[in-house]
Amino acid sequence: MAEEPVVVWERPERGARGPAPERSRGQITRAAVRLADAAGLASVSVRQVAKELGTGPASLYRYVAGRDDLVDLMVDAATGEIDLTVALTGEPVTDLVALATRTREVHLRHPWLLEVTPEAMRVGPRGLDYLEFALGALAPVRMTGPAKLEAVAVLNALVAMVSRATLQSVRSPTARQSAQAAYLATAAGKGAHPLLAQALTDSPEARPAAHPAADPAQDAQDLFERVVRRVLAGLLAPAPESPRSHRD
Question: Which listed site, 32, 51, 68, 128, has its alpha carbon 20 to 30 Å from 230?
């Protein structure tokens, strides 16, 4: 009978017998993160991590079963960089916007995190701490436990989406972005899309020279906070009564 799969954190780091380990999972994880920070998630393999550590691949299989374990350990280590020592204010939206900002900072520091698919994500010890903190921020909200977990999941997905867009905008050629903006402005000015024209007129890019735009990084942060705050306001609002409840 095949053994039930067990996450890496439930397996001992070393056997009860045998020589003392030459490495630790922490060392292996840090080496894997260095590789991913430098060249992306695709650069991480047991063989490459072993090379980074100056040892043979076979020696690492005492600590990890394979690449999936490496990725799990890396994600959990990066999650541990999110500061959870910040005191909660008791205002759920404010606390979760601040948590989202700190999470985004980790995404931008470790872009490979955004390459890990949701299906491949595993919650480890640091991930449990993150969930506990987020649920603590939601404590004043009258919602069911599952609804709170759904709100945290939506928040995480939103932060990942915005972080990915931020990184892509940085990597995209400026000339390409300028060409796209010019095309939109020209198309909107032809009169066939009046709502788009109005929206573009209201955008920060349309500010007159007498009121120059703020620092782009600050603009991006302000936009991020506004979007997260609006989404959270909707998620945490009392659910409307269904028509059926009125009939009953």
Answer: 128
3-state secondary structure the chain: CCCCCCCHHHCCCCCCCCCCCCCCHHHHHHHHHHHHHHHCHHHCCHHHHHHHHCCCHHHHCCCCCCHHHHHHHHHHHHHCCCCCCCCCCCCHHHHHHHHHHHHHHHHHHCHHHHHCCHHHCCCCHHHHHHHHHHHHHCCCCCCCHHHHHHHHHHHHHHHHHHHHHHHHHHHCCHHHHHHHHHHHHHHHCCCCCHHHHHHHHCCHHHCCCCCCCCCHHHHHHHHHHHHHHHHHHHHHCCCCCCHHHHHC
CATH number of 82-199: 1.10.357.10
Q: What is the pLDDT of residues 82-113, one digit of tens each?
A: 999 999 999 999 999 999 999 999 999 999 99
CATH number of 8-14+21-79: 1.10.10.60
The full set of domain ranges for the chain reads 8-14+21-79, 82-199
